[in-house]
Structures
1.
Amino acid sequence: MSSKGKGDGLRVAGGVQKKTNRKGANTGVSGLEFHKSKGQHILKNPLVVQAIVDKAGVKSTDVVLEIGPGTGNLTVKLLEKAKKVIAIELDPRMIIHGDFMRVELPYFDLCVANIPYNISSPLTFKLLAHRPAFRAAVIMYQHEFAMRLVAKPADPLYSRLAVNTQLLARVGKNNFRPPPKVDSSVVRIEPRHPPPPVNFMEWDGLVRLCFSRKNKTLGAIFRQANTLQALEANYRTYQALQGNGGGAAGADAAVGIQSLGTAAGDDDVAMDHDGADDDDDDAMTVDGGPASKAGGGAAGGRRRGGSRVSPEFKELVMKVLTDNGLDTNRSSKMSQEEFLNMLALFNAAGIHFA
Ligand SMILES: C[S@@+](CC[C@H](N)C(=O)[O-])C[C@H]1O[C@@H](n2cnc3c(N)ncnc32)[C@H](O)[C@@H]1O
C-alpha cells in the first residue's frame, strides 16, 4: 500500500489496452499478463473511467481509497481531483502492493474502485466496518452482485446480503452500466450516520437464520429443533449473565453464547433447493467476526447429539411470533424495519441470536 499526492506523478506499471501475447493470454501494452484469479479485468474504455470518477463526486480535499488500482488508469484520473489517493494492490508487479483484505485501512473520505469480483462481499463488509465511516464508496461490481446488493423485499435476488448492506448503508445503483460489456454495474454506498442502533452480530444471527430458508415461514424455521436448542442455550446463558451481573461467572457464561443460523442454513440449503442463499455467508464480517461457522457448528452438533428443548421455551418463542403475527411471514418479503422490530421483540422476551 502506498499513497500519492496530487502531482506526485504516479508511476503506472502497464498500459490498459488489450493485447494478446504468444500464448494468447490477455495482456496490456506493457506485456503484463492479467490473471483472472486476481480479478484483473482492466478498464479499457477511458469514457467509463471518467464516468466513474465523475459519479464519485471527488472533492479537492478528499483522501480517496482505491482498491486494486491495477495498471493505474483509474488512479491517474482520481489524482487529478483528489487531495490524495491511497491505493492497495495485491499484484506485486503493479507498483503499489498490499492485500486489501489484510491491511489495516487508513483514514479516507471516499472509496472509488473497480474491484476484483471474487472478493466483492468481504470487501464490502470490510469497508462498512471501517471507522470513522467514510462519505461514500463508488464501486464497480459484477452486475449480478450489484443487483443483489440493491434488491428489495420480494425481489428474487433479495437476501441476507441485501438486508445487511442496507442496514449499514444507503445503497443505490448508479444509472450507469459501462458499455460495451453489460456484466458490470457501478453502485454508490453511503454508510448510515449514525450507524443503526443495533448489535450487528445479533442482527446478523437473526437474519442468517431467517434466510437459511427464505421462502419458508418463520413459524417453520423457528420450530426446527436445532434452532430452538441453540436459542434456548443462549437464553439460559443470558439469564446467567444477568444473574451474575457480568462477573467472572458471567464471563464464563458469555463463552457459551452462539450465533444462530449457520449450520442450520448450510444443511437446509443443501436439503431444500428453494433458492435460499447465501454464498457469502462468512463474508459479512463486521466488528471483528462473523456469526461464525464455529458458533453455528455448535448448534449443529447439539442437534445431532443433543439436549431437549423445554416445552416452556418453545412456547415462549412461538408466542413472540404468533402474538405479533410473524409466524406466517417469509423473510423473502420482509423489510428491514420488520426484521428490526422482530429482533426487538425477541430481545424483549430474553431471546438472543448471538
Ligand atoms: C478489476 S481489476 C481493476 C484494475 C484497474 N483499477 C482498472 O479499473 O482497470 C482489480 C485489481 O485488484 C487487484 N486485486 C485483486 N485482489 C486484491 C486484493 N485482495 N487486494 C488488493 N488488490 C487486489 C488485482 O490485481 C487487479 O489489479
Note: The CA atoms of residues 119 and 320 lie 38 Å apart.
2.
Amino acid sequence: MSSIKIECALRERYKIGESPSWEEKEGTLLFVDITDKMVCRWNPKTGEVQSISLEAPVGSAVLRKSGGYIVAMGNKFATLNWKDKTVTTLACVDEDKPNNRFNDGKVDPEGRFVAGTMSQEIRPAVVERSQGSLFTLYPDHSVVKNFDMVDISNGLDWSLDYKTMYYIDSLTLAVDALDYDVKTGKTSNRRTLYKLEKDEGYPDGMCIDAEGKLWVACFNGGRVIRIDPETGKRIQTLKLPIERPTSCCFGGQDFSELYVTSACDKTDENWNTHQYVAGGIYRITGLGVKGMPPKAFAG
Ligand SMILES: O=C(O)[C@H](O)[C@@H](O)[C@H](O)[C@H](O)CO
Ligand SMILES: [Zn+2]
C-alpha cells in the first residue's frame, strides 16, 4: 500500500482556479482562473507559469488537435493561439441572457467540446436559478444545446465505454448520469447517481480514472470524493487542507498524480504565511490509480 501525500504544489492565489488538464508532451498543467480571466500553463518541474489574459471570465480551456486551445469564455466558444495570444470567436450562446457566462467544459470521446453556462454568481454558489444550459461545440464549429434549466453547470466526464456522460449541476448537490450517444453527441435519460452528504459541500469539477471511478471536487466541502458509478456509492474521501477545491484531473508521470485546483477566500489576509494556500494547486500522490489523458478538440 502506497501512502497518500497531499501537497500545495503551486502556491499562488487564483480566485477561482478551474478546468485543469494535463498536457503530456509538454509536461504542463493547463488551467484557468475564471474570475481573473486567465488561461495558465504551469510546468511543475521548472515551476514556470505562463498565462494569457482574456477579455471575459473563462470557465474552461481545452486542448485542440490542430494546436493551441479552445476556450469557453463569457458567452463564447473561441480558439486561443498560445504563441501569438490571439483569440478568435467560433460561436456565441445564450445571447438572450447577458448575465450568463460559460463555466466548466470538457472534450468528449469523439473530440467535441461540451461546456455549460450559468448566471454570474452573486456570491459563491448563489446565482439566479435555472439560467444555464449545456452546449456542444462540434468539430465543424456548429453548436447544439443539449438541455437547459441548469443552475451552475459544472463538472463532466464520460464512462470508459463512452456510453454514459457524468454531469454536475452544483446546486442539485448531486452527480448525475446520462445516456450518451457517442455517434451524435446527444444525451438522454438523465438520473441521479450520487447525492452529496451534508458536510460534502457542493459538487464542482470532476474526472474519471482508469478504473472508471469518478473523482469529484467538493466546493465548500474541503475534500475530493471518489464515487463508484456502478453502485452509486462513495468509496474514498480525500480530506484537503483547504475548503474550496474546484476541480481535479490526473497528470504527471503516467497520469498517476491527481491535480486539484481551488478557489480563494478574499478575506484571508495572512495567506502568505500559510503552508496550504487557498487558491493554490494541490498535488495528490500515492493514490495507486491512474487517470485518463485528456481528449483534444477535433475541429
Ligand atoms: O468553479 C466553478 O465552477 C464556479 O464557477 C464556482 O464559482 C463554484 O463552482 C460554485 O460556486 C460552487 O459550485
Ligand atoms: Zn467548476
Note: The longest strand covers residues 186-195.
